[in-house]
Specification:
Distance between the termini of chain A: 48 Å
Order of helices and strands of chain B: EHEEEEHHEHHHH
Low-confidence stretches of chain B: none
Number of helices of chain A: 23
Radius of gyration of chain B: 16 Å
Largest interface: A-B, 54 and 49 residues
Strand order of the largest sheet of chain B: 2-3-1-4-5-6
Helix content of chain B: 25-40%
Largest sheet of chain B: 6 strands, mixed
Strand content of chain A: 15-25%
Mean pLDDT of chain B: 92
Number of helices of chain B: 7
Shape of chain B: globular
Oligomer: heterodimer
Structural class of chain A: alpha/beta
Number of strands of chain A: 23
């Protein structure tokens, strides 16, 4: 059977075929769709699939299941591994009787923002084997292999994709039989294995983890077809990840006579395979996105065995350390490597001309986005409190709330990591900055990592205003639920947690609740909160408009009264609402302002129009 | 043999749906398929594009100079696909302009029609211009711009319409099948009567 699957869908398929019983994770592009694809199937499969509060907790849940002898997977984007790292290191030392896979999606070329972190380094740090899939078929096959390996070695494995594999689709061969494990959960008490209470425990576990690495390498080398090799000419490429696909395309397109060794297991290294490949080659090109990880390991082997062979890659600047590797980049590297010209070049002038004419489309808030109201009111509050905008630091955070950094709001100054807005704001304040400091973050981000820094601010009495833009969803990654999500999920047993209660329990005395669709109220609340000398928290609450639309929430829409409109465009310039449109016509020299059918009905624009030309449509049906 | 399709437009226009239908068409005719979609913040009106590769290829992204067919749903977004066009390839250009906010507040200018057309002509492509938005209004189904273009595409490059309609039916909500079929036929008709430059 064949299906068109993305890398993430293929992993979901691999999870089903492997009979995994516990699936945990935290949403993060480009990893999110694994769980999104499994949620609707969870009931039929009778498995646990859900979003957890953050990556560390998700990982601990998966590990607990593996300690009880079960199969578990945890999914996250590269930044999530940083969050989970503390527990992961300890768990990787201990191992388990079941099996556990940590799926991490790296994002060379930053399709979704954030760092270009190369998570392969974690494999070395955590003493864990890592499989790195080059295409969607491998994503499925490696998922199944990873569970088998994890069980055999008794420890966790990383499974890594990059965005080009995770988000692209291809025809994938799959099986319909699902392996089911019928064993009862059993966790054997063994403090020498599952605790770090004695030095001897820790050192023994360290040794065990190193043994597991070797065992994984032996199994891969003797039993599995995870690494692949093709011999041709004496120019050889050592490659991993998605560049393997473009390499094969170039070989086929230009009829190249080169050899390649494709590493599916990127850690630990097979010295044997690399040595036998090197022995047959005159020169080597190392083709891998991001850091020179394989290149370093290869150079180590060359050094250790005193080989004399030319190695090209990142250390000699043949290839860049940043971005994803397009066909063009790989083609250029092969030209340098082989010293020949491949194919014809496109006219640079046409491409440059096209680029110069391109229309830039800055990302703004969606129509009806409640964050628009919050940031507009925040800017107005700063003005009315007689501060200059450039004097008030707004420490931003991950997610949709950070779109407040874009024009026309230009509110947020910085973005670090989940929940970091509140910590960074405290550090800035402690330097003696007298003017108010504000932190803005979404509800999902607050639940993920905002609670500890908020407690810290209260505990140390560091004055700041935290604005939680509570739209009820973990919206930016694709509308996942979080503990504050409105109770929409039919058949779900999840319990809603009231954000106000959490904030109060952190010790915050000044907690305000406002609706960002009510401009004047929100403005007054923000002014009061900013004036307060201690820690104040404003919860600006209104459901994400896209989610509300899906639930058929319908508000009265707005229209422009052309008689009253003077064509000043204050509304469009200050709000950048995608439902607004402005055009000139022969009949109307001052221009025609329109609100299109995309209007959600937030009503913010009516507060801004200097002539009162924006009116509610009375008989909306 | 391979055919590379490059679809470009804006989030909300249905460009990804259009790519998806072609990708599944490839599966249905038993070929190897690669399908890449760039969405990002596209549902918020940003640039969106899809790449479908049918036949013997490896990479999921279309190399420069390689796209046999390009469908541009928004006029200026077409510029983003120019470097991928194969000389002699087919370009179906939807004459629909959507201005970003900073153009409506007059801080930027939208590129001139002739500048874009000139660049396409210099790539020596076969160009078909369609006003799909107007046709969609005519048939009172404004959301069907993408399916009208699918009809045009099917006719111009001779896709198997029976297979394509089967796939189309699987990829639109049941209650809209009839309207989508009307839109598809309308696209086929227009293509039959249109001039390829």
């Amino acid at each position: 059977m064949k299906k068109l699957l993305t890398g993430n869908e293929a992993i979901a398929e691999g999870i089903i075929e492997s009979g995994v019983e516990v699936v945990c994770g935290y949403p993060g592009t480009p990893s999110t769709e694994v769980i999104i694809n499994l949620i609707p199937k969870a009931k039929d499969l009778d498995i646990r699939v859900d979003w957890d509060i953050n990556e560390k907790v998700a990982l601990e849940i998966a590990a607990g299941a593996a300690w009880a002898g079960k199969k578990a997977i945890v999914t996250m984007k590269m930044s999530g591994v940083n969050v989970a790292a503390d527990s992961l290191c300890s768990i990787a030392y201990s191992g388990f009787t079941g099996s556990m896979v940590v799926y991490v999606a790296d994002d060379p070329g930053t399709s979704a923002g954030m760092t270009e972190q190369d998570s392969r380094h974690y494999a070395r740090l955590m003493i864990m084997p890592m499989l790195d899939a080059s295409n969607q078929q491998e994503a499925l096959d490696f998922t199944k292999n990873a569970f088998n390996l994890s069980k055999k070695i008794g420890g966790p494995l990383f499974l890594r994709l990059t965005s080009d594999v995770a988000h692209a689709a291809s025809d994938v061969q799959f099986e319909e039989n699902i392996s089911k494990d019928k064993d009862n959960p059993f966790f054997k008490r063994d403090v020498a294995k599952y605790s770090k209470a004695k030095a001897s425990f820790c050192m023994n576990q360290h040794q065990e983890a190193l043994n597991r690495l070797e065992k994984a390498r032996d199994i891969v080398d003797s039993e599995l077809e995870i690494d692949k090799v093709r011999y041709g000419g004496k120019s050889g490429v050592i490659v991993s990840g998605s560049p393997w696909m473009n390499l094969q395309e170039a070989i086929s397109e230009y009829n190249l006579d080169i050899s390649w060794l494709k590493l599916g297991m990127v850690y630990p290294f097979s010295q044997e395979k690399i040595l036998s490949f090197l022995d047959k080659m005159d020169k080597i090109l190392i083709l891998e996105e991001l850091d020179p990880f394989i290149e370093e390991e290869t150079l180590k082997i060359i050094g250790q065995y005193g080989k004399k062979i030319k190695v090209m890659g990142k250390f000699d600047n043949t290839l860049p350390k940043i971005g994803n590797y397009s066909f063009s980049i790989i083609k250029k590297a092969l030209e340098t490597f082989l010293g020949i010209k491949l194919g014809s070049e496109m006219s640079k002038e046409i491409v440059e001309k096209a680029k110069s004419l391109e229309v830039s489309r800055p990302s703004s808030f969606c129509t009806g986005c409640p964050h628009r109201g919050t940031y507009y009111a925040l800017n107005q509050a700063i003005k009315q409190l007689k501060y200059k905008k450039e004097d008030i630091i707004v420490s931003g955070d991950i997610g949709c709330s950070f779109l407040g950094a874009n024009p026309p709001f230009n509110s947020c100054w910085s973005e670090v990591a989940m929940g970091a807005s509140i910590g960074i704001a405290q550090g800035l304040k402690l330097t003696g900055i007298k003017k108010p400091i504000i932190a803005t973050l979404g509800d999902g981000t607050f639940f993920h990592s905002g609670i500890a820094p908020l407690i810290n601010a209260v505990y140390h009495n560091i004055p700041l205003t935290v604005i939680i833009l509570d739209n009820g969803w973990t919206a930016q990654t694709g509308f996942e639920e979080n503990p504050g999500t409105v109770d929409l999920y039919e058949g779900k047993k999840n319990k809603k947690i009231e954000l106000i209660d959490v904030v109060k329990a952190c010790g915050v005395k000044n907690v305000f609740l406002t609706d960002p669709y009510q401009y004047k109220d929100t403005l007054e609340v923000l002014k009061e909160a900013i004036k307060y000398k201690g820690v104040s928290v404003v919860i600006s609450r209104r459901e994400c408009a896209l989610q509300a639309s899906k639930r058929k929430v319908s508000l009265p829409k707005y229209t422009v009264n052309i008689e009253k409109c003077i064509g000043c465009r204050k509304c469009i310039k200050e709000l950048a609402c995608p439902a607004m449109s402005f055009s000139f016509s022969k009949e109307n020299k001052k221009g025609v302002m329109q609100i299109t059918s995309a209007c959600f009905g937030c009503g913010l624009c009516k507060n801004i129009c200097p002539t009162g030309a924006i009116e509610v449509i009375a008989d909306e049906d | 043999m391979k055919t590379d399709f490059y679809f470009v437009g804006l989030g909300g226009q249905g460009i990804i749906k259009l790519s998806e239908i072609i990708a599944h068409y490839g599966m249905e005719i038993g070929e190897k398929v690669k399908f890449y979609k760039e969405v990002g913040l596209a549902q918020r009106g940003g640039s969106a594009h899809g790449e479908v590769r049918i036949g013997d290829v490896f990479g999921s992204r279309i190399p420069p100079f390689s796209a046999d067919v390009m469908v541009g749903m928004e006029f200026s977004e077409t510029l983003k696909a120019i470097e991928f066009l194969k000389p002699g390839g087919v370009v179906i250009l939807n004459d629909h302009k959507i201005y970003p906010i900073d153009m409506m507040s007059e801080t930027e200018k939208y590129p001139k029609d002739e500048d874009i057309i000139n660049l396409l002509n210099r790539q020596k492509v076969k160009l078909i211009q369609i006003k799909a938005a107007e046709i969609a209004e005519e048939i009172k189904f404004p959301k069907a711009e993408n399916i009208i273009l699918l009809g045009v595409l099917a006719e111009i490059i001779s896709l198997d319409k029976v297979v394509l309609i089967k796939v189309l039916k699987q990829h639109v909500p049941g209650r809209f099948i009839e309207q989508n079929l009307i839109a598809f036929d309308k696209g086929v008709d227009i293509a039959k009567n249109s001039v390829v430059k």
